[in-house]
Each structure stands twice: as structure tokens, then as C-alpha cells.
Amino acid sequence: MIYSMKSNIRFLILLVILSGCAATNQNKQLSNDAKSAMASGDYQKALANYENIIALNKANNKETDGSIYNNAGIAAWSLQQTEKSIDYLETAMKLSASTDETFSTIAKAYKKVDNLSKEIYNLQEYVERYPQGKEIAPVRAQLFDAYVRSENWEQGEQLWPLLDSTSHNNIQYLTGCLRIKRKLEKVDERDNLAKQILKKDKNNIEALETLAEKHYYIADETYVREMKAYEKNKTMKQYNQVTEAIKRVNQDYKTARDYFERLYKLNPNPRYANFLGNIYTRFENKEKANYYYRLAKKK
Fold first, then answer.
1. Do 279 and 216 contact (CB within 8 A), yes or no?
2. Which one of 1.25.40, 2.40.128, 2.60.40, 1.20.950 gives the CATH number of domain 204-299?
3. CATH superfamily of 26-98
């Protein structure tokens, strides 16, 4: 009886050992298959194998190496399984298994689900940890765009010079830079950039708005200032001065009008119509002024 019990125990131990060996061998095979699938771009197969490894380890009460979660997250992102990708990559980070690709991938995923704060955090982590990383150029560009979207104007301005030449010639990023210059009131840089953008994209709303408002406010401020000066001192000299000023004012109003009319055709924004109403009021064209004021009130 004792011998039989000992034999049974040895048999159970042997089964456990054999089972463990079988699981280990299965894990190795799954891992090798997953790596091969990733290398060949078969992300569906790769993800299935990585998920099988995770499930097998759970069944055997074994911990899964963080790199498995990391690779599973990257494969899931390649298959546009965004939420799954985020879950796996966050787990990889907790297990200290992150790589440069972890941060660039999860930043893209967070952008897709519109989580701007986490997108920015992971992009910043990439830039700080991997300044020579293979994706540093597109990561910096995405971070710049995220700063613009989050209205972090100063941070965006600081990052702009570090972007590569491709980004510096990209209309999207140029427009973002223009928005920054407008918000920070960097007037000369703003105006030069607006002109540069219009050479590449004649219908760029941000650039057209910049120049339209520039000429409008120059005209409006000059008109008000000169008329006040004339009202205070109605001499012939002051009259001649205001007459010359009005010529310059009218030219700026005409330039602003042309820009705002282009803008309104591209995007019938009531704000543009209101500017046009004000301009035609200055031109003493009541018919057109009322026309645009009515358009301004429609929406």
C-alpha cells in the first residue's frame, strides 16, 4: 500500500513536470510563430499567438513577460484594434517592458480615441527618452500638432525649430505655427508666415484671416485716430493730413475687403460678413453694408 502511494505521488510529480515542460515548449513555439508573423506583417496571426501565450500562462498561473504584452499591443494597433492596443501597451509599461515603439504607438492610439492629455504625455516621454529614436521626427511633429490642439502656444513655439524640414514645409504644421504666432501676437513673423502659406495654399483660411484682419484693423485704427485729430484741430494742415491718411485707409480697407470676400465664399461665417458690413459702411455703401449685416445675423 505504501509503495503504491509513493508510486502515485511520483507519477503525479512526473505529470506536473511533463505538463510544465509541455507548456514551456508550447510557449516557445507560439512565441517563435508570433515573431515570424510580426516580421512578415501578418499581425492577425501574431496577435492570436501572443494572446494564446497570455491565456496559457494564466491557465498555468504563470506571469507573462511584459514584452509579450508590448508586442501584442503593437500588433493590435496595426489591426486598428485601438482599445485593445492601449490595454496591452499600458500593461507593458507597468511591467517595465516599454520601448520607443511603445510610446509612439500608444500616442497614436490615444489620439484616435481623443485623449489629448495622454497623447501629449506619451509623446513627451518618447522625446525625452529617445531623442535619437527612429520615429523622433514624426513624434515631434505629432507633439507639435498636439500642442496646437491643446492651445499650449508657448510649448508649440519652442518645439517648432526642432521639427524637420519635411514638417516645416507641411501646410498642416505651417498653419499650426501661424496660429501660434497669432495667439502670441508675434506680428512680423505672423504676417510673413501667412504670406508664405498662401503661396502654397491660396485658400488657407488661417492665412487669409490673418491678412484680412491685419489690414482691417490698420485701416480702422488709422481712420478713428485721424478723424479724432481732425475734430480737435480743424485746420487746413490737419485737413490735408487726414485726407492723405484716408487714402491709405481706403487701400487697407479694400485689401481687407478682398480677403474677407474670399473667406466668405470659402466659409460663409457670420463673422466675416460682419467685417464686410463694417467695411462697406466706411465706404458709405449702405446697400452692400446692409446686405452683409443681414448675412451676419442669419446664423
1. yes
2. 1.25.40
3. Tetratricopeptide repeat domain (1.25.40.10)
Same fold, 26-98 and 204-299: yes
In the block, residue with C-alpha cell 496571426: 45
State the Cα–Cα distance between residues 275 and 121, nearest whole angstrom: 40
In whole angstroms, what is the distance from residue 93 CA to residue 66 CA?
A: 8
Question: Over the stretch 42-86, which tens digit does the pLDDT of each residue have?
Answer: 999 999 999 999 999 999 999 999 999 999 999 999 999 999 999
3-state secondary structure 187-249: HHHHHHHHHHHHHHCCCCHHHHHHHHHHHHHHHHHHHHHHHHHHHHCCCHHHHHHHHHHHHHH
Looking at residue 17, its pLDDT comes to 43
Q: Measured between alpha carbons, how far is 1 from 253 in angstroms, rounded to an integer?
A: 109
pLDDT tier for residue 230 given thresholds of 50, 70 and 90: low
Is residue 279 within 8 Å of residue 260, measured between CB atoms?
A: yes
Rounded Cα–Cα distance for residues 116 and 150 (Å): 7
Domain boundaries, the chain: 26-98, 112-202, 204-299
The count of residues in the chain is 299
Query: Mean pLDDT score of the chain, rounded to an integer?
Result: 89
Q: Are 156 and 180 in contact (CB under 8 A)?
A: yes
CB-side exposure of 172: number of CA atoms within 13 Å? 10
Confidence of residue 281 (pLDDT cuts 50, 70, 90): very high
pLDDT in tens, 74-133: 999 999 999 999 999 999 999 999 999 999 999 999 999 999 999 999 999 999 999 999
Which region among 158-162, 206-210, 225-229 has the lowest average model confidence (pLDDT)? 225-229
Give residue 11's pLDDT.
Answer: 41
